[in-house]
Every structure is written in C-alpha cells, then in structure tokens.
Amino acid sequence: MKLFDLKAGMNPRRVRIFLAEKGIDIPRVEVDMKAGENRKQDFLAINPMGTMPVLKLDDGTHLAESISICRYFEELYPEPPLFGTSALDRARIDMWTRRMEYEIARPIVEAFTHTSPFWAGRRHQVPAAGDLARDMANTAMSWLDGELSRRPFIAGDNYTIADIVAQCAFVLGRNTGTPIPPGSRNLQRWYQDVTQRPSARA
Ligand SMILES: N[C@@H](CCC(=O)N[C@@H](CS)C(=O)NCC(=O)O)C(=O)O
After folding, report:
1. Could you identify the atom of ligand 1 that is nearest to the CA of residue 172?
2. Ligand 1 center to residue 11 CA distance, Å?
3. By residue range, what is the domain housing residue 8?
4. Residues 173, 105 within the same domain
5. What integer pLDDT is reported at residue 62 of this predicted model?
6. Are residues 64 and 16 part of one domain?
7. Pairwise CA distance, residues 26 & 47, whole Å
8. Which residue, by CA, sits nearest to atom 9 of ligand 1?
9. In a domain, 202, yes or no
C-alpha cells in the first residue's frame, strides 16, 4: 500500500490527519506538482484526473478521492470512530461533512484558483468568480460561527471527519487570502482546538 501525496494540498492533508488520528503509518510518495508530475503519463495512468491524494493498494487497485480513502481506512481500523457509530450519528456526520465540503471548502478553493498567480496559465481564471467565492466563504463562515456556539465540534461532541474537512479548508484559506475573520469567536476557538491536536501537523 502507498499514498501519493502532496504536502501542501488541502485534500491530501485530510488523509494524513485522518491516518494520524488512527495511528496508521503507510509509505508516502510526494508528487511534484510544480514540475507537472501529476499531469504526466505515469501519474495519469494511476489517476486520469491528475489529482492527489491517491491510495495504491497491494493488488494494484487505486482510490483517488480523499474521503473515500478515509472511509476505506475507517472500515479497516474502526477505532477511534471518525465517521460515527450509530445510524443517526453516521448520517449527521455525513451531513456536516458534505456541508463543510460544499459550503466551506469549495468557495475557499474557488477563491484561490481564480485569484492566485500560482494558477495563472494552469487554470482558466475569472477574478470576479474568485471575489464572489470569497464572499460566499465569508457568509458560510459567519453561519458556521453561529453553529459552533452550540457544540464543541462541527458535527457534535466529538472530533470527526467533518472537522478534518473543515480544518483543512481553513488552513488553505489562511494561506490564500480567505482567513477566518477575527470576530468569528466560536470558529476561532474551534480552529485553535483542532489545530492543537498532534494530528494537525501530519
Ligand atoms: N475530490 C478530490 C480532489 C483532489 C484534488 O483536487 N487535489 C488537488 C490537491 S488539494 C490536486 O491534486 N490538484 C492538482 C491539480 O489540479 O493539478 C479529493 O478530495 O481527493
């Protein structure tokens, strides 16, 4: 088994944090995105979408979606549970994970891709779309700040995959011009808590 990784990437970070929370250590290969390694034939043969992370299993199977990779490890190593245990728990965590993906991670990524010089020449950039995405991210952060006044973690009393998705988005946001506003006290408190976990440095 090995993980094709991208140290700076939001989605590979989800998998590394997840594995660290579970205490799982697997071999990793860093893909050189700046050199375009992920767009070359060798890597495209592994994942035609040209994205990381990719988990390669010993039988040659590949999984190329961060949440699917995490789900696979959850099945193999159920403790500590990060996707929930009861039917309701699982559904609630899934609901919050999807919300973190669509309401938080997506606009932060869009703001980055449409406005950063890093993506110039690699992606079609529409700066106004980036500005709109940044506004949407800020609106979603204000909503999430209110939600976090009522519970310690995104989906309830425990740290879950929903927190991992959100914290990785906010790491990207902090580095790319969409930080958590200082006035969002609950969100700031939550971010401090999750980023102080040892797994945050994975
Ligand atoms: N939905 C995928 C997205 C993967 C993805 O977009 N990865 C980014 C890094 S965070 C990437 O590899 N980008 C390279 C590129 O677009 O060229 C997942 O969650 O695994």
Report:
1. 10
2. 6
3. 2-76
4. yes
5. 97
6. yes
7. 19
8. 9
9. no
- 80-129: per-residue pLDDT in tens? 999 999 999 999 999 999 999 999 999 999 999 999 999 999 899 999 99
Question: Which residues line the pocket of ligand 1, CB cutoff 6 A?
Answer: 6, 9-11, 33, 38, 50-53, 65-66
**pLDDT tens for residues 156-191?**
999 999 999 999 999 999 999 999 999 999 999 999
Choosing from 32, 52, 97, 109 the residue with most ligand 1 atoms within 8 A of its CB, the one to mutate for a pocket test is 52
51, 76, 101: which is the final residue of a domain? 76
Q: What is the CATH number of the domain that holds 6?
A: 3.40.30.10
